[in-house]
Design goal:
Layout: H1 3-16, H2 31-38, E1 43-49, E2 52-58, E3 60-61, E4 64-65, E5 71-76, H3 82-89, E6 95-101, E7 104-109, H4 112-124, E8 131-134, E9 140-144, E10 150-153, E11 155-156, E12 159-160, H5 164-243
Length: 258
């Protein structure tokens, strides 16, 4: 199976399988972006999250929070209000942590140059933690990530460790980051559209040049064949005239009154 056919098989399998995320569907804020990518032959998305504010309740291991061992007390992909956060905090029994996570998008690409185009667009759009990985089977994955996240512990063993005023302050920062994240997604979408349009035009011009070159070569080859054929005929005619000894074959044209 060639590279293109294998990639098409991977894409079909990925896009037809069930969405196993908590939400079970693509986030509204990235739906157009995901549709744009999946509509192109050389891309398909393997996972996505538009960005979210969440409150986790669980154990902190060093400086890392293990999500699989946590209880998700609150999750929103929109700006969060203090009342919702305070209501969620009342349910905490362990170490509650407020987090803002920006866009995360994973895209499998057909060729490395396709991934490089996306990577350049992502960096220019503000997602400066983006990167490309190549797997053992040749799978090329672009991860679109940013660095403007937020992670702050709020309680320990169920006891609130900060004031409501500080929580209100943190939510303003988180909501600002959410708004900035939204702008970067829009910028990424617009820049990607332009990049793909440029690529299409470039590829079209390249094909036209190749076709023009091939046509020019075909015309030149045809002219050479015709020239060679003509020379061959002239040569044969010359030989026939030289070998013709029959005087009765000659033809002369005279005026009627000659």
């Amino acid at each position: 199976m060639d590279r293109r056919a294998e990639f098409g098989k991977w894409k079909a399998q990925c896009l037809t399988k069930a969405d196993l995320s908590r939400k079970g569907s693509v986030d509204e804020a990235v739906a157009e972006l995901v549709q744009l990518l999946n509509g192109r032959e050389q891309f398909f998305t393997t996972s996505s999250c538009a960005g979210r504010i969440l409150l986790l309740d669980g154990c902190i291991s060093g400086f890392e929070i293990q999500k699989q061992n946590c209880c998700w007390l609150l999750v929103t992909h929109r700006p969060c209000v203090k009342d919702d956060m305070m209501a969620a905090l009342k349910k905490a029994s362990g170490d509650a942590v407020l987090k803002f996570e920006p866009l995360v998008l994973h895209v499998q690409c057909q060729q490395l140059q396709d991934a490089q185009i996306l990577h350049s667009v992502a960096i220019d759009s503000g997602f400066r933690n983006s990167g490309i990985t190549v797997g053992k089977r040749g799978k090329i994955i672009l991860a679109v990530r940013s660095t403007h996240g937020l992670e702050v512990p709020l309680s320990h063993k169920g006891k609130l460790m900060v004031t409501e005023e500080y929580i209100d302050f943190l939510l303003k920062i988180a909501n600002q980051k959410m708004e900035e994240n939204k702008k970067r997604i829009e910028r990424f979408y617009n820049c990607l559209q332009h990049a793909l349009e440029r690529e299409t035009i470039t590829n079209s011009h390249s094909k036209e040049k190749i076709n023009e070159k091939n046509n020019s070569y075909s015309r030149k080859k045809k002219r050479n064949r015709e020239k060679a054929h003509g020379e061959c005929i002239n040569k044969e005619n010359g030989i026939e005239l030289e070998n013709d000894d029959d005087p009765g074959i000659g033809v002369a044209i005279f005026p009627e009154d000659y």
